[in-house]
Design brief:
Strand content: 5-15%
Largest sheet: 7 strands, mixed
CATH architecture of the largest domain: 3-Layer(aba) Sandwich
CATH topology of the largest domain: Aspartate Aminotransferase, domain 2
Organism: Longibacter salinarum
Strand order of the largest sheet: 4-10-9-8-7-5-6
Order of helices and strands: EEEHHEHHEHEHEHEEEHHHEEHEEEH
Bound molecules: pyridoxal-5'-phosphate
Radius of gyration: 22 Å
Protein name: Aminotransferase
Keywords: Aminotransferase, Hydrolase, Pyridine nucleotide biosynthesis, Pyridoxal phosphate, Transferase
InterPro entries: Aminotrans_V_dom, Kynureninase, PyrdxlP-dep_Trfase, PyrdxlP-dep_Trfase_major, PyrdxlP-dep_Trfase_small
CATH class of the largest domain: Alpha Beta
Number of strands: 15
Number of helices: 12
GO molecular function: kynureninase activity; pyridoxal phosphate binding; transaminase activity
Length: 420
């Protein structure tokens, strides 16, 4: 399995080393990606566009994203322009089907506010392993609309119970909303399972929503082939787009009118009419009030890097490094909580270790950044900016720590709260 060249690292800006180590190894792509090297210039471009053009920037700014093209862009068009140029290829779908969103929470809230969802049935099928932006939203809306959550328990290892979800889908299903990768398990739902769930949902005329936060940007996707209705995710993590940048894909022809649509998504926003009118461009109906422009200047710099590398190569690199990490873990006698099989493996792996918090803190003192869950799992995602040598170095340290117990006395270095 081939790796991206070590020079790939230089496409990203790396954190400052601390605690006397020379270099930091960042394995937390599942939380917040490293900063692409072009981001400082893009943020400068934002401040300059604001200064130079002021209000007129809403209509036109230089096309920093495609400098060689004649496409005209303005702040008004950025949510759809950047989605067409960068997010659609990232998801392998046609232009015109995606739009930038502030976060997944907003997208799910918009969907739930649409009468076309409630018209399809009285239940929304989810598992207890969904991220709160889905799981909590479904429960909150059940107080407002005549649609109840049908929460399917996960298996003891935290992975979705596909048979139980299939059993739960039926004539009452308005929507099925499932994670493509479990955020606590790192388990990727294989295409055959997704296809079976979509087919069952469609048989009962329900909508299918896939939360692809941890799959998009890490592998090629086949949403059209999967007959997906709605796919959502964010650019914060492996896509290195930072906060404020998420997206939604809506199947071509899906007519949906979120009651949360704001004036930015109206058919005639500057008519300031007394009645709202749904935009003909369905994806724009997922806009609320004034969009947060600054975040869009750093949204797709990382996507550009990944597309340039090729998503097949990104996936190969990620699998090659996680395979090496798994081999090291097994050599040390550690078990894997996340799947070993490649077709079920995401970019992140979880390794079972005792005193995982202490080990995570100890690794930090050595410049190796991972995270830990429930004091029982070490979570890591060796990604495109990581090398084989970094994985080896991390496991040398883990091996030493486990054999001599040094991590149990490690100082606590974390300054912030928990990370997602
Ligand atoms: C599966 C999944 N969905 C969604 C999110 C983020 O949701 P939001 O964009 O609403 O913060 C995360 C964050 O870690 C996640 O793991």
């Amino acid at each position: 399995m081939s790796l991206l060249p070590p020079s790939f690292r230089s496409k990203y800006r790396h954190p400052d080393p601390a605690n006397g180590v020379d270099e930091v190894v960042e394995f937390r792509a599942f939380t917040h990606g490293l900063q692409p090297e072009t981001v400082p210039a893009m943020m400068e471009a934002f401040t300059e566009d604001w200064r130079r053009f002021g209000v007129d920037a809403w209509n036109e700014v230089p096309n920093h994203w495609r400098p060689d093209s004649d496409d005209r862009v303005g702040w008004w068009s950025l949510p759809t322009y950047l989605a067409d140029e960068f997010v659609a290829p990232l998801l392998g779908v046609d232009p015109g089907t995606c739009i930038l969103q502030p976060h997944v929470h907003w997208t799910v809230q918009c969907l739930l506010s649409a009468p076309e969802v409630a018209a399809r049935g009285t239940e929304i099928v989810v598992t207890d392993g969904e991220f709160p932006s889905v799981l909590h939203s479904v429960q909150q809306w059940s107080d407002l609309i005549d649609v109840q959550p049908r929460i399917v328990p996960s298996q003891p290892d935290g992975r979705p119970d596909v048979d139980a979800i299939l059993d739960a889908i039926g004539p009452d299903t308005a929507m099925t909303a499932i994670s493509h990768v479990g955020f606590t398990t790192g388990a990727l739902l294989p295409d055959d399972d997704v296809r079976a769930l979509v087919r069952a949902t469609h048989r009962h005329e329900g909508l299918f929503l896939l939360d692809g936060y941890h799959s998009a940007s890490t592998m090629p996707l086949s949403l059209t082939d999967l007959d997906m209705d709605v796919f959502t995710g964010g650019l914060l993590k492996e896509a290195s787009g930072s906060a404020g940048n998420a997206f939604v894909y809506l199947r071509d022809g899906l007519d949906i009118t979120p009651r949360l649509t704001g004036w930015f998504g109206d058919a005639d926003p500057f008519g300031f009419n007394t009645q709202p009118r749904p935009n003909d461009d369905v994806r724009r109906r997922f806009l609320g009030g004034t969009t947060s422009v600054a975040s869009m200047y750093h949204a797709v710099e990382g996507v550009d890097i990944l597309l340039d590398a090729g998503l097949e190569n990104v996936r190969e690199h990620s699998l090659a490094l996680s395979s090496r990490a798994i081999e090291h873990a097994e050599r040390l006698g550690l078990s894997l909580r996340s799947p070993r099989a490649e077709q079920q493996r995401s970019a992140m792996i979880l390794i079972e270790v005792e005193n995982a918090h202490a080990l995570c803190e100890y690794l930090k003192t050595k410049g190796v950044y991972t995270d830990s869950r429930k004091d029982a799992y070490l979570r890591m995602a060796p990604f495109v900016w990581n090398t084989k040598a970094e994985v080896d170095r991390a496991f040398d340290i883990i091996g030493d720590a486990i054999s001599n117990g040094e991590h149990l006395d490690a100082p606590i270095l974390s300054t912030g709260g928990p990370v997602t």
